[in-house]
């Protein structure tokens, strides 16, 4: 058992740090939930990709560095410590790409991944539907077989990044006659600018269009954009959802850097009496999350898969993130009421954490039933 | 970076668990609470034979240590089984004695502590834990006069290493005061009594180990409370179904599980780095997780959990006591806050 990194890992850390030091924009980019900010963040993705820093854990053939999970964690620590911008293509990189690596065809990987790595194609997720939040099996948007592909119709909602993104991925009901609701679903990718797609941006609490509704009217998707076998989308999506809640969505680096910034803020502001306790808890929580992730990564390297343990992770980081940003706003006092600061943007973003990627209530059900072995719940 | 127990560490933990499971620790605790140490002494020797105390003692004094990771693993098991006695105090005493300039006391006292023939207690405040049972009673008290810091640089932050202190072998104790945790018997300390062993001994390493092992013990207490409560809610029925099937019950236990599972890596990480910040973070997190689990366990057991006759009480009261032992939550958070950039 050790926490020491190899010389090669340390060299990788030093290389990342020096690149970031030279390239991270001196002043923060505008919010990526605005049109202007989206474009600026897309350009930043291209800059990262030019020196192979946008997808370090991917194979070199697709613009990565074949870095492995430990170096991915190291890179993320350096990335956030350097104050680098948020990642506009997070949905594609952390959700779709792992799915393609596991379930896609060679042709799909070759076609989709390079433009994802450079930010030329930015991806939105299209899981949720009206009346289907955490209950994905109740999806109704459908795909009907047609010559050479599928015609998609129906409505998707809460589609993160879709206001400005290029393409989307999600599940569609392609066989309405299956005995169980999670059968007959197909996982596919589609163009947000294809004929028949209407994107209606939805403004979140701070007025920024961080997500959108998608109205689909016989949108044609060729067979080459179906991931895995038609009708088997549920299993594929579940492996993606595990990923989303697990290691790759919220790297510890992000919280370590935020906790340090909060600590700095606390030292320069006199806040309410109990803020010291809350700042200490933020520092401790970031360290706990880092070490928890190191342990998970070590098990992963030993060949274990990430199972229901990812639900522990999801509840932890989502609640931690809110506690941290709330503390920052309390420390800022009346400045904390302003909407255009980095902390207020973080705060609004954090509020969604317990809701998306499977609500925390659903995660607690998973923990109770699958990790503690309690009888299946009465809801 | 391989932050994972190796086979030997897992085997050590499993064998300790098996030995303690066979020992019927609840009845040992009940004897102990009455001041009857015979069964506890026997268990103490078996724990020593398993090598637990040797892990804190340097090889020069017939030990295997110091090995904080293995000590932490051992203390999780000791906490899970509610083993009574001055366990933390004994490893703290061995570290203190081994670090003195004068090797005499260590040579004289450590071998018997390693073998389990004797036990030690250490008091830094008004009470000494299990002082009637401990053969080696160490007491730390402030030395008369101004603090060292003021003499050297006219002030500055006080820290355990800079507080002027006297380390003494304390005289036999008077009667104990009743404790909230009956298994932890507290004896008032006579200030400045007994043989003087050292003035201004290096305290930091011993206090750090005390804090780490207390954190580990607390984590074990929390894990046991969770396990016992999960078992209970599966068999206890209300409205015709096990109460564990109610979401309101499952969610409380899920929160306890999350708190404990995030305390575990902090504990093991702290055992690896042994920095003051990491150890303090582990202490506050493990103790808060255990305490919160205790509250959940009591709530979900209902009235039976509120009785001394239910074995659950052995862990419930310990979760409360360990929270303040060797650094309360505020002291630990202060340590975390006073650190610089470190991760």
Concise description?
The complex is a heterodimer of chains A (379) and B (343). With 379 residues, chain A is an alpha+beta fold. Chain A has helices spanning 7-23, 35-50, 68-81, 90-103, 106-118, 233-245, 252-268, 275-301, 309-332, 342-351, 360-371; strands at residues 123-126, 142-146, 149-160, 167-173, 185-191, 197-202, 211-222, 226-227.
The strand order across the widest sheet of chain A is 1-4-5-8
Q: How confident overall, as mean pLDDT of chain A?
A: 93
Spans where pLDDT lies below 50 across 5 or more residues of chain A: none
Number of helices, where a helix is a run of at least 4 consecutive DSSP H or I residues of chain B: 12
Radius of gyration of chain A: 21 Å
**Structure class of chain B:** alpha+beta
| Net shape of chain A | globular
Q: Can you put this structure into words, describing what you see?
A:
The complex is a heterodimer of chains A (379) and B (343). Chain A has 379 residues and is an alpha+beta fold. Helices cover 47% and strands 15% of the residues of chain A. Chain A contains 11 helices and 8 strands. In chain A, the strands form 2 sheets. In chain A, strands 1-4-5-8 form a 4-stranded mixed beta sheet. A 4-stranded antiparallel beta sheet of chain A has the order 2-3-7-6, with no helix packed on it. In chain A, strand 2 and strand 3 (149-160) form a beta hairpin. The longest helix of chain A is centred in the last third of the chain and has 27 residues, at 275-301. Chain A starts with 6 loop residues before the first helix and ends in an 8-residue tail after the last helix. Chain B is α+β, with helices and mostly antiparallel strands. Chain B has a 4-stranded mixed beta sheet, with helices on one face. In chain B, strand 7 (237-238) and strand 8 (241-242) form a beta hairpin. In chain B, helix 4 runs antiparallel to helix 9, helix 10 (276-301) packs antiparallel against helix 11 and helix 10 (276-301) packs antiparallel against helix 12. Chain B starts with 6 loop residues before the first helix and ends in a 5-residue tail after the last helix. Chains A and B meet through helix 7, helix 8, helix 9 and helix 11 of A and helix 8, strand 8, helix 9, helix 10 and helix 12 of B.
